[in-house]
Each structure stands twice: as structure tokens, then as C-alpha cells.
Amino acid sequence: MAGTLLLYDGDQTHELTAGTFRLVKRNHLVKFKKQLSADGDFQSLSVSFDQETLRAFSREYGYRAEPLPAGGALFPLRPDARYQGYLASLGPYQQLAAATAGPLLALKVREALLILLQANPALKDVLFDFTEPGKIDLAAFMEKNFRFNVALSRFAYLTGRSLATFKRDFEKLFRLSPSRWLLQRRLQEAHYLLKERGWAPSDVYLAVGFENLSHFSFAFKKTYGRAPSHL
């Protein structure tokens, strides 16, 4: 890895530099931001595990997850020579065509699982936890996660609700529709970052969850009477 990768989980920003590893847990929202190295380079590599692969692997090897206490989105991985060796082994596969690489990469994903579990057996409780999110405190969840630009259906799922129940509970709690509340809350946060923290509009709109700068500028001016660049 070259450069720095910043991961924001709704509570804090985690900094990943060269030689560091993290496991991002299922059913958590995380933002990624790349920072170039001093020589203008950035390189990172990620391996993802889909549910089908994990379920098949758990059946084959007999892994069963034990309940874990609630925790953050990121699970730190201690430096291990096996991780470095595995990443180095992926180099030759980058040049293969997708049709050729597919079956081989599927084996490499299983290899990654074996290495992770050998290096840290406790990871079974993270990797093979197939439970669905339970119904949680809606106000606390939204205040933590309003900066993430995801569909309402995703917010609903992560709070343990159907989309219809999510909307009903939301309007009962906030006296606003989810879309209206998200717009107001994001604009409020944007106003704070622009005025009190001196951020540039081009940095703010992504940080608070807007899709693009033009939509952010239009909504901001409509609410506050002037463009964000004139605040």
C-alpha cells in the first residue's frame, strides 16, 4: 500500500497507512477517502467475502459464530507475515482476463479466509455471523449515519425495519419524512463545516452525503439564501 486510506465509520476516522490491515464488518456503513503519498502515488488492495462464499465455507469447515457484543465497523488486524505474503501472491492475477482469473480468484478468496482464521481464530465470530440486524434506536442511528449517501431501504434494513415501518417510525419520531429530515440535517452540518470549520464546498458536499456539488449548492442556496461559496 502507498499513500493513506481514511475510513470514516460514523463515529471516528481511522487512518490506514502502508503495512496496516483492517476487516470491515458486515452491515456497517463506512466511507473511504484516499490520500496520495509524498510522491503522488496511491495503492491499496481489498478482498471482499460474499455471503454465499462465507456460508459454503462455514458448512465445509464447521465454523459457527458465537454472539458478539455490539462494536464498531472495523476490526483491526495485527501485522502478520502471512498477510504480506498473500498480497504479494495476488500480483500475477492482475494481468489475467476476467474469464480466466475468475475461478483462480475464487480460490484466492478461500485462501484469504484460511489465513485470517489461522492468524486470528476469533474472527470466526465476525466472518460467520449471518444474523440480520435487529430493531434498534432510530434516532441514535440516524444521527450517527445521516452523512452516508445510501438508499432509504438500506437505512431501513440496518435499523431492523421494513421500508414501510421505517418511514412510519421515522415520521412519528421526527415529524418529517426521512428524505426531508436528511436534507435538513445534511444542510445544517454543511453550514457548520463551511462557517465554523472553513471547509471548501467541494469538500463539504461529499462529507455530508450529497450526490453532487450542483445539487448541494442549489439546496443550500434555497435554504440559506446564498451559495455555499459566499457564506
**Would you count the extended β strands for me?**
5
| C-alpha end-to-end distance | 38 Å
Largest sheet: 3 strands, antiparallel
**Total count of helical runs of at least 4 residues:** 10
Order of helices and strands: EEEEHEHHHHHHHHH
Summed over residues and divided by their number, the pLDDT gives a mean of: 91
| Spatial order of the strands forming the largest sheet | 2-1-4
Q: Mind sketching the topology for me?
A:
Elements (H helix, E strand, L loop, with lengths): L3 E5 L4 E4 L4 E4 L6 E5 L15 H11 L12 E4 L3 H9 L8 H22 L4 H4 L10 H8 L6 H7 L4 H12 L3 H18 L5 H7 L5 H12 L7
Antiparallel strand pairs: 1-2, 1-4, 3-5
Concise structural overview:
The protein has 231 residues and is mostly helical.
Describe the protein.
With 231 residues, the chain is mostly helical. It is 48% helix and 10% strand. The protein has helices spanning 51-61, 81-89, 98-119, 124-127, 138-145, 152-158, 163-174, 178-195, 201-207, 213-224, and strands spanning 4-8, 13-16, 21-24, 31-35, 74-77. Strands 2-1-4 form a 3-stranded antiparallel β-sheet, with no helix packed on it. α6 (152-158) crosses α7.
